[in-house]
Write a structure and sequence with these properties.
With 208 residues, this protein is α+β, with helices and mostly antiparallel strands. It has a domain at 27-35 and 74-203. The protein is built from four helices and eleven strands; from the N terminus they run H-E-E-H-E-E-E-E-H-E-E-E-E-E-H.
Length: 208
Amino acid sequence: MKTLINFICVLAVSFFFNSCKKNEEQVEFYLLKKRIISTEGIPVQQYAKMKNIKNFESAKYCSFDTVKKQLIYGGKFVVNQNDLQSEPLVTNDEVLKLDMEKSELILSESARKKISQINPSMKYGVQFVITVNKKPCLTGYFRSNISSYIYNWNYIGYDYYNNNIEAKRDDNFVIRQNADYEKWKPVLTNLKNYPEIIVALKNSNRLK
């Protein structure tokens, strides 16, 4: 009888924790099916067509600030759920903590490895989205740490490597922005502007 009671207790505890896990809000990273043009400025191809300019092909994914006459390589962009790839790059279980003071995500070893293996685009970066229960909440760029291009929207710097290339591993996935897109003035992203992410991580005891 005692053994049966112990068995039932184990089942009850297991059911409780599994139930909590299922009800936990899912915070995940997704890559996009295709490149999304920034909402800042106007698409450079549109500007080139207006001005009958034919040498903007190398900047086809940029936007153009018609006031400052500047190309925008990493500007703000907006997505919906249909823009996301079918599977997350980083799953909920791989998002371990968020340090609000440092604007830093602490990710699992498997997540860090997957990000570090993303083939970098020095000019444009690789767009990502952080979602809560599949709803897009924060957009940004994975930016190579050796890129010289300025992104004024959210970005996470990373070191690229693969099985054949040795490179420094960057374990600090800090979300930053640049003050503008003309001069290099990085600042921490104010994550309080993304309350759904904060609430989801707080409810699952993942705020540091």
